[in-house]
Design brief:
By secondary structure, this protein is mostly beta strands. It has no helices and eleven strands. Strands 2, 4, 5, 6, 9, 10 and 11 form a seven-stranded mixed sheet that branches. The chain has a four-stranded antiparallel sheet with strand order 1-3-8-7, with no helix packed on it.
């Protein structure tokens, strides 16, 4: 079981930057794959970025080169650094802790709003 708490969202101007944090409590954080998802109004929830326990990363094509996912094992925290933000990045962002075994249930944070607007 894992509990996730996101922070760092808010309003930023186009071209600006923001860093989201996801603090995890529970078991086996260091070997779980951690991900950020987002959901914009009227759209499906989409995977933004993922990082494995070993530090391997993957990104959605729409954010590649602008966003960076990282993790701090000592703090049990995963981050999403978002640069060169665009209005289309506006969404509720969700932290996800993946299952230890593929196909089992993962865990979700409550979500945090990111709004990119002038």
């Amino acid at each position: 079981q894992v509990q996730l708490v996101e922070s760092g969202g808010g309003l930023v101007q186009p071209g600006g930057s923001l860093r989201l944090s996801c603090a995890a409590s529970g078991s086996n954080f260091s070997i779980r794959t951690m991900s950020w998802y987002r959901q914009a109004p009227g759209k499906q929830r989409e995977l933004v970025a993922t990082i494995s326990g070993g530090g391997r990363t993957n990104y959605a094509e729409s954010v590649k080169g602008r966003f960076t996912i990282s993790r701090d094992g000592a703090k049990n925290t995963v981050y999403l650094q978002m640069n060169s933000l665009k209005p289309e990045d506006t969404a509720v962002y969700y932290c996800n802790a993946g299952p230890l075994i593929a196909g089992l249930r993962g865990f979700w944070g409550q979500g945090i709003q990111v709004t990119v607007s002038s």
